[in-house]
Amino acid sequence: QVQVAESGGGLVQPGGSLRLSCAASGSTSSIYAMGWYRGIQRELVAIINTNGRTNIGDSWKGRATISMDNANNTVYLQMNSLKPEDTAVYYCNVKKTLRDFWGQGTQVTVSS
To answer: Which residues, 6 or more positions from 64, have their beta carbon under 8 angstroms from its beta carbon?
Structure first.
């Protein structure tokens, strides 16, 4: 099993920035990618594999960057120029061979 711990959500004003962190622990061998999704429909925000290759969701291009500390199985999501419509629960996803693991989510609220 893999435990997924998210942090960094909160309230931010429009135009502001937030950094989300996600750490995987437990059976972390064979993790090949980690990323972030938002909302019930699990819309892709950004994902990165252990080779450093990234995929950024269309609505996030130019506003989000993702990085990964492979040694510590931790992924960081920097979100800039946040908009009220970015308000959602953000979920960390950990990809291993054969299955994915999800965090419980962290709330991001963009409001003045």
So the answer is: 45, 46, 56, 57, 77, 78, 79, 80
The string of pLDDT tens digits covering residues 20-43 is: 999 999 998 999 999 999 999 999
User: Per residue in 13-33, is it b (16+ CB within 10 Å) or e — as a string?
Assistant: eeeeebebbbbbeeeeeebeb
What is the rounded distance in angstroms from the CA atom of residue 79 to the CA atom of residue 11?
13
Q: Which two tokens stand for residue 51?
A: 């080779």
Contact 32, 97 (CB under 8 A): yes
Residue 30 to residues 14, 16, 107, Cα–Cα distance (Å)? 38, 35, 28
Q: For 60-83, what is each residue's pLDDT tens digit?
A: 999 999 999 999 999 999 999 999
Supply the mean pLDDT for the chain: 96
